Amino acid sequence: MTPAWPERAAWGTAPSLRAWQSAAMRQYFEDLPRDFLAVATPGAGKTTFALSVAAELLGRRLVDRVTIVAPTEHLKLQWAEAAARAGIPIDPTYAAGKGKTSRDYVGIAVTYAGVAVNPLAMRIRTERFKTLVILDEVHHAGDALSWGEGVREAFEPATRRLALTGTPFRSDVNPIPFVTYAPGPDGVPRSVADFTYGYAHALADHVVRPVLFLAYSGEMQWRTRAGDEIAARLGEPLTKDLTAQALRTALDPGGSWIPSVLAAADKRLSEVRRHVPDAGGLVIATDQDSARAYAKVLKQISGEPATVVLSDEKLASKRISEFTESDRRWMVAVRMVSEGVDVPRLAVGVYATTTSTPLFFAQAVGRFVRARTRGETASVFLPSVPSLLGFASELEVERDHVLGRRITDEADIFAAENDLLAQANAGEAASDELDNSWEALGSEARFDRVLYDGGEFGHSGEVHVGSEEEMDFLGIPGLLEPHQVRELLQTRQSERARKQRAAAPEHDRTGDSIAEVSTHEHLATLRRELNGLVAAWHHRTGQAHGITHAALRKECGGPAAAVATADQLHARIDRLREWAARKTS
């Protein structure tokens, strides 16, 4: 390896290669494959690994040129800056119609969209030199048919191809160019990575931060196109359209939900900054109007202007860089910083977007897990939507890109239809018909629960925003070891429960009152817990929510969850936990 490279490691990384990077490098140069797929969790250091490979290949004269393909314009600049620190000059302004570039450059950086515009020109350039092609976040090559075809045509003649991704799964079944697929145990083709470094491994190595997910629910009211006024609680079992409308109502800047959650997030950021003075926060918004509105709310809350990053503005990349180097509190963006952008000081996030695919969720959470010092913890605020809670609970599960599903028996004859339904339910936003069929009337936020390390913590039901119960979790110190965070969560939950029991009147603590468990609040809490577990089971097994509920009713007895007793709900929760334990073992 080029001697200077370890001292020139990309920004945000250790002076020398991390253990996984060294292992991946060793494997790569033992085999010297033409195609290599490295799957590493966001924040683990894929850029450093790729540039280490590039430097070594250039040093050995195995390649003469480097072509980097990135998802966005900003990431092209980021790659070029990192490569410059590694002694590899890259031209981030190259375009297919430009033809030649300066002899000072060893390579170019382009976007997937730019490759699709003129793949023939890129192919000619690739054929002229012994070229290493680095495909950053290679799953984007499956975003559109033209993108995948363009990448395949442009880089088929490449001497070496190095594919990188932190999220190797997609919501569709479009094959990704230059990725190998092999049948799994069930016969379904899955992507095969040459080297994998998952979130769980990175967390154990202290390469990434653990994540606290703080979920907020509450009452929502809106009016449909037909003039009907609907009230629903965010997080309760609803149809896809009603869930989407409830979520949009919560995220409406004119309501009370999003300002309350932003205020809670700012309190959490203040607590983190007591231990990490330059910690920053990021709000991921659905659209530009919402982003600007959230920025105004944050200015009122924190007294400091928020940095607004819009992808169609020329100064977007500059604003991200300025925020990265400053100590400002908040940045608000739509999608531009959802993937690949490196802002290591981001420690608090608010997921305020209707986009709800597992791919986007993992990319968004990846913005907050990049560790700088040991003991840092990331905090992400979420709406209490079953799909998002399921993604949060399954954060440590490693996934591969699945191309389909095999029909195993006659009872599975609707597999194809179920796959189509699952794809529809995994849509990034509500259906197009909702655009003009909804009007937010009001919203109110309630703190629901905390998800951490596969466990849930709360105060036996929703609590008011700004209460002492909420501060039990918002006030967690910003520097703690992962096991200390879990112990603190358990301790604070237990202490609050003891205080509530001690403060209750004597007659409320009698055995007769304890037996009376069918209160509205208790049942609602149990139903939320059951629905959260069912959602997590769905994301682990792919089994539809309705089928899981039906199986639980068959085994445990009783009516539907909406009218079940507390004992029946407890039995189903325990049974589902037993299933999860058996599947894990």
Describe this structure in words.
The protein has helices at residues 19-31, 46-59, 73-85, 112-117, 119-128, 145-155, 199-204, 240-251, 257-273, 288-302, 316-325, 358-365, 386-393, 415-425, 468-474, 482-503, 511-515, 520-541, 545-556, 566-584; strands at residues 35-40, 65-70, 90-91, 107-111, 131-135, 160-165, 181-183, 189-191, 195-197, 211-224, 229-234, 280-285, 307-309, 330-333, 346-352, 378-383, 438-443, 446-452, 455-457, 463-464. The two termini are 41 Å apart. Helix 1 (19-31) runs parallel beside helix 2 (46-59), helix 5 (119-128) packs parallel to helix 6 (145-155) and helix 9 (257-273) packs across helix 10. The chain contains 20 helices and 20 strands. The chain is of the alpha/beta class and 585 residues long. The radius of gyration is 25 Å and the shape is globular. 45% of the residues are buried. The strands form three sheets. Strands 10, 11, 12, 13, 14, 15, 16, 17, 18, 19 and 20 form an eleven-stranded mixed beta sheet that branches. Strands 3-4-2-5-6-1-9 form a seven-stranded parallel beta sheet, sandwiched between helices.
Oligomeric organization of the protein chains: single chain
Globular, elongated, flat, extended or rod-shaped: what is the shape? globular
Contiguous helical run count: 20
Rg, nearest Å: 25 Å
Number of strands: 20
Give a short account of the largest sheet: 11 strands, mixed
- List low-confidence stretches: 1-15, 398-435, 509-518
Class of secondary structure makeup: alpha/beta
What is the strand content?
15-25%
Helix content: 40-55%
Average the pLDDT over all residues and give the rounded result: 79
Spatial gap, N to C terminus: 41 Å
